[in-house]
Amino acid sequence: xxPSAAGGRWALADRNAxxxxxxxxxxxxxxxxxxxxxIDRNRDQRVDRDELREAWRLVSARRDLGQAWAR
Length: 71
Prior knowledge:
The protein is mainly alpha-helical.
């Protein structure tokens, strides 16, 4: 996944334009909302772009590792 591809959706969800999403804003992005607690690494009840990028990095790394084992 590419975090920059979600930029437009993020901007629409970030209703107060503070650069992060609270749980109610995250509801506009169902996959983020589904994993909100895991993505919110600092437990401040908000997900910022750095937390989202890190989550995508971890998901990509796990997928790559799984593909490597399948070879």
